[in-house]
Amino acid sequence: MKLPSKQEMVILTNSLRQAAAANTNVYSFSDYDFAFDSVLHYLEIEPRDLQDDYKSMFNDLKLYDALAELRREFWLSMHFNVTKEGDGGVCELKHVIHVDTSDSQKVIERSLDMLREYDYYSIDKVVIFPYSVM
């Protein structure tokens, strides 16, 4: 499978921004901040408010539709804040998923099912990388 080009990553970014804008009121800001690195070609998506459900976030962004159109190999990095049991402290959890099929929703959701063991988590950011790792 091919890695996405810079142009394809820009198209992905614009698609996700449009989906986020469609879900907001005309007088309010998007619920998500987008940062595209034009040198390394990766995309960061940060929810502005506390987001505790990756499925609803991905539905808001129509992420699976955008990734299905991309049909490229990529890495998805999820950054979470997870409440520790006992002392109630918060720790950071990073989870990286390699997706190389057109069925990205099944691959991503199967990988993120491990979050069900935590009582509470919040999404800090999502990063989409178009790189192969050696």
Structure description:
With 134 residues, the protein is an alpha+beta fold. The chain has one domain (6-129). Helix content is 31%, strand content 31%. It is built from 4 helices and 5 strands, in the order αββααββαβ. The protein has a 5-stranded antiparallel beta sheet with strand order 1-2-5-3-4, with helices on one face. A hairpin with a 6-residue loop joins strand 3 and strand 4. The two termini are 15 Å apart.
Q: What about the largest sheet?
A: 5 strands, antiparallel
General shape: globular
Low-confidence stretches: none
Query: Using DSSP, what is the number of strands?
Result: 5
* Class per helix and strand makeup: alpha+beta
Mean pLDDT across all amino acids: 82
What's the helix-strand series? HEEHHEEHE
